[in-house]
Amino acid sequence: MILIPALALTACAVPQVSEPETVAVRATSLNPAYSSVNAQVLSEAGKVDYSFAASLDPNATANTLTRLQSSYTQQRGDESLRVGDAVSSVGMWGTSVRYGGMQFGTKSETRDDVINSSKLASSGMAVLPTVADALFASAGEAGTNLSQQNLSVNRSLPSGDQGWNLAVQDALGHSESVAAPMISRTRLAEQGCSDFSVGFGKVRENYALTSNSYGPMFANTTVTCGAPMGFTVEGHGEYLADEVAALGFGVARRIGSIGTASVAFAQSNAVGGGSGWMSKVGFEHTNSLFNLMVRSKFQSREFRDIGSMSLNDPIMQRDLASVGVNVTERSSLSVAYATQTTWARERTNLIAVKQSMGVGRGTMSMSAGHSLEDNFGSSVFISYKRPFGTLKPMLRPAVDDLEELNLQLPQTSDEIN
221 and 131, same structural domain? Predict the structure, then answer.
């Protein structure tokens, strides 16, 4: 009988079991030919992330499981330390690449216009293209970094509320739709230099084709500071062993109600290619009626960054522009234009127009696209989207949705092509 109260006191003395770590498993793609699975272990101390691709086809003779990326991330306030696979940071200029190593800082996301898909397999060095790169590749431009990575792009026209459609096919023949702006917004920093990222390691090669293929040593850093008088000053550098080193800076400032202006300059030194320079200028304006975004890039024949090391015909000039107008409370008009000239005088021009208007309880979108070159045609796309269920009040189109034509395959309830 004495054992009963003793056992009760012992039970009270046992420390309370803490809540277990959260385990999340997500299948982003699931079909017999190709499946992509991501597993995460989350806790207050950090996060373990592991993803892989596998074939569920029992008749497949090749390797049925390929590691995509794995990493451990520890968060301390606004700063994070990541060990394992990561994507390098870029600022107003530069190239995002996949690499394995260490990344530390406050910048944990890529620039908005970078196509950062963890499922797209690519040959060679794992360079992440921008939306502008994909647009010009979709127009049939040869010798781009996408074609050299065995990535192909099929461009259709804007649909729904998202604008351009791009379907990217990777080195294994798998297709994926992408959604990202053609022009990314300029980030203005608060006072001080608390916005930074530094990373080093080895670049990934043959991403999603092999599990553990790494190339030469890589390093990059981006530091953004809020300077007096409202200026944002940014420094960015990137290095690839025995290939190229590039270093540059950028300056941006909001000019009252006129808009935000930015300028960037960089210089590179490539092994066997000499030194070169690159400059970028940009402007953006947003108000309740319309918005405007413009970016221009100029560079010398010798300039190289990590993403353009293998190009035989580098870019001489690239201009991007987009305008969005709220015509009425339920009607908007968007226009996007992109042009590029290489040092071999190959010129490509792309233009697209989209109009959206409210029709009944839904939205009608009419889009047209055209290439000004002789080897590419024109087409028109019409879609209608109508919600089902409870009627919600129709709101004025958001200015952010109009700032330019985004890229995404249509996801509408009813469509007419």
Answer: yes
Confidence tier at 397 by pLDDT (50, 70, 90): very low
pLDDT digits (tens, 9 = 90+) for 265-294: 999 999 888 899 999 999 999 888 888 999
Which residue pairs from 370-376 have beta carbons closer than 8 angstroms and sit at least 24 positions apart in sequence?
371/139, 373/139, 373/347, 373/348, 373/349, 375/140, 376/139, 376/140
**Placement of tokens 């100029």 in the chain:** 298
Closest-CA residue to 90 (of 238, 214, 218, 206): 238
Are residues 243 and 227 located together in one domain of the fold? yes
Torsion of CA 144, 147, 149, 153, to 10 degrees: 110
| End residue of a domain, out of 74, 99, 132 | 74
User: What is the pLDDT at residue 406?
Assistant: 41
From 53, 74, 95, give the residue that closes a domain: 74
| Predicted local confidence at residue 332, as pLDDT | 79
Tokens of 26: 């997500």
As a whole number of angstroms, the distance between CA 194 and CA 175 comes to: 39
Confidence of residue 61 (pLDDT cuts 50, 70, 90): low
Q: What is the mean pLDDT of residues 296-319?
A: 89
C-alpha–C-alpha distance, residues 302 and 394, integer Å = 52
In which domain, by residue range, is 120 found? 77-415
Handedness of CA 135, 141, 146, 152 (dihedral sign): positive
- Same domain for 194 and 70? no
